[in-house]
């Protein structure tokens, strides 16, 4: 039978804006050894803004934006939303109807619209088309665009870390989490910049959703007996990782249903610093029970 005080713990968590789906997860999170994070939307706000349009020579900023927005109208990724809001701000004309679309998780997308095939995404998506593209030095996410297989330029998109992200990491170390890790599909320059800013112990970049699962799997295999590996995500592309970790934790702030579904614990407000609170609530609950 489940000790009564476990329900007390779940209630206490819930008063703090944290939904715990079972008493076993509250106990497990209190033993967190490794805390693995997704980047976009989890440690960063995921509210991107377009900061630069860099069309190839002979092309224009407005046609680059038009083509990219035409592709991104199909996606609900935070990157896509920023491209579309830039499009609305600058122009607002109607975009060509999407005839066919395919989202390539962790890379970008391929869309057929107005009789053209548009690819928008990262360097590895461009490499699949046999295109070599420049690597900007700025610490920003890059979206490359190709129309009918021809490279047409890139957009720089900047995100910000959440206000309490740095505090969240330092509090986790303080309550005894041994290792904090960030896994991201974003490129090396931006991943390393963010990890340094937040004092994370490890960062792995240029990952596909499946790579994130295998990293979490490795951490689970290497953990100290009796301790736990937690993964914290926002649910966009990372439901399988949430499921693989000992404890899957979703940041519910962006309201992704997939994340709420796949997670064991949901932080209702978009505050990573609540993680240390949950660990402490879990510990107090276990102490009362024993
Ligand atoms: P993260 O791991 O940081 O949460 P994702 O796995 O969601 O990021 O995406 C990884 C990378 O794939 C992004 O940094 C971007 O380069 C590319 N990407 C994903 N979706 C899109 C999109 N809709 N448009 C352009 N690029 C995208
Ligand atoms: Mg993400």
Automatic annotation (TrEMBL):
Positions spanned in the full protein: 280 to 569 of 621
Protein family according to the UniProt entry: Belongs to the cation transport ATPase (P-type) (TC 3.A.3) family. Type IB subfamily.
Subcellular location: Cell membrane; Membrane
Protein name per its UniProtKB record: Cd(2+)-exporting ATPase
Gene: cadA
């Amino acid at each position: 039978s489940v000790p009564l005080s476990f329900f007390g713990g779940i209630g206490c968590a819930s008063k703090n804006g944290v939904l715990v789906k079972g008493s076993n997860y509250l106990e497990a999170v209190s033993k967190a050894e490794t805390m693995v994070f997704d980047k976009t939307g989890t440690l960063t706000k995921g509210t991107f803004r377009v900061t630069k349009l860099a069309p190839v020579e002979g092309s224009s900023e407005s046609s680059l934006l038009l083509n990219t927005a035409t592709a991104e109208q199909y996606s609900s990724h935070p990157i896509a939303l920023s491209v579309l809001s830039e499009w609305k701000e600058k122009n607002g004309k109607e975009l060509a109807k999407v005839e066919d679309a395919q989202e390539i998780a962790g890379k970008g997308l391929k869309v057929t619209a107005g009789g053209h095939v548009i690819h928008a995404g990262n360097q590895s998506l461009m490499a699949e088309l046999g295109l070599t593209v420049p690597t900007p030095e700025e610490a920003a996410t890059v979206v490359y665009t190709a129309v009918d297989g021809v490279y047409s330029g890139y957009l720089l998109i900047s995100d910000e870390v959440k206000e309490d992200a740095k505090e969240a990491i330092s509090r986790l170390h303080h309550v005894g989490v041994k290792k904090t890790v960030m896994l991201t599909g974003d490129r090396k320059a931006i991943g390393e910049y963010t990890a340094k800013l937040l004092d994370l112990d490890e960062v792995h970049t240029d990952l596909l959703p499946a790579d994130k699962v295998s990293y979490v799997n490795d951490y689970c295999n290497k953990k100290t007996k009796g301790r736990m590996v937690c993964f914290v995500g926002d649910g966009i592309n990372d439901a399988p990782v949430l499921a693989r970790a000992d404890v899957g934790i979703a940041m519910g702030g962006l309201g992704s249903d997939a994340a709420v579904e796949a997670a064991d614990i949901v932080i209702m407000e978009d505050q990573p610093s609540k993680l240390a609170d949950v660990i402490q609530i879990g510990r107090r609950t276990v102490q009362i029970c024993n």
